[in-house]
């Protein structure tokens, strides 16, 4: 089993060769997913099941025959081993390692250098869930739960952003403004219209929002969030949304690491100033530059007069400020 957390990534396999070793039901599931991703799948197996034999007849896959030749690995991008022969799987993993080729050995995290996650498909939106090979059934159960929670219209919603990406970037070249516009669209009528099947109305509402990009506020904002005792299981939904809106996170990362980890990964981080005057100056500087600044403090500091006073002083400088209860009771 991997001794460190896996690095999540999404691979573009369109038109690229992938080798799958095995011809049974497990191999079939892996090959089906690879074909869906556009990969050119080559299969090496002593025998193919009915589904794979049909795909071979339809020229959807290619078959390699004869004795296994390690040189085959020189021309593929990924290797998937789906046999029940652990010694053979280990040899495949060794040969892949010599070539710095990523390999997935089904149900063997120790031999694998990448895992194939459980997928929630709302193309072009994809959600991947992995237990690092430790508990694949748990990952599948979570996928089942997410399938019921995530509306299928999310794919169409993501498609709208994809189709108009160039126009969006041209009209909103600044990342902070673009992010603010995205938030307005996501909280507007477009998702609801798509969920109800009103695709044309959703497209019109999206285009109307695109025409009104000039109305996006250029001023930044400050969100003052209490972190309680640092228990992430108590974080309120409003605080979680704030952490995910942050362009800049001002905090003492050492005192609330689990809550800080909930913030946007690409948000900049600055240490929390010791005195209130320095904190006010810091928040003003970055909010006035157009950033959404989230300030995180332990305990319930901002729920007291301290937070009210800081919010008032920011408001007097024309900065939108909100005090957010960070933890539920």
TrEMBL record:
GO terms for molecular function: precorrin-2 dehydrogenase activity; sirohydrochlorin ferrochelatase activity. Residues 125-147 form the Siroheme synthase central domain. InterPro entries: 4pyrrol_Mease (IPR000878), 4pyrrol_Methylase_sf (IPR035996), 4pyrrole_Mease_sub1 (IPR014777), Met8-like (IPR028161), NAD(P)-bd_dom_sf (IPR036291), Sirohaem_synt_dimer_dom_sf (IPR037115), Sirohaem_synthase_central (IPR028281), Sirohaem_synthase_dimer_dom (IPR019478). It catalyses: precorrin-2 + NAD(+) = sirohydrochlorin + NADH + 2 H(+). Keywords: Lyase, NAD, Oxidoreductase, Porphyrin biosynthesis. Residues 153-210 form the Sirohaem synthase dimerisation domain. Its EC number is 1.3.1.76. Pathway: Porphyrin-containing compound metabolism; siroheme biosynthesis; sirohydrochlorin from precorrin-2: step 1/1. Residues 222-327 form the Tetrapyrrole methylase domain. PANTHER family: SIROHEME BIOSYNTHESIS PROTEIN MET8. This is precorrin-2 dehydrogenase. It comes from Pseudoxanthomonas sacheonensis.
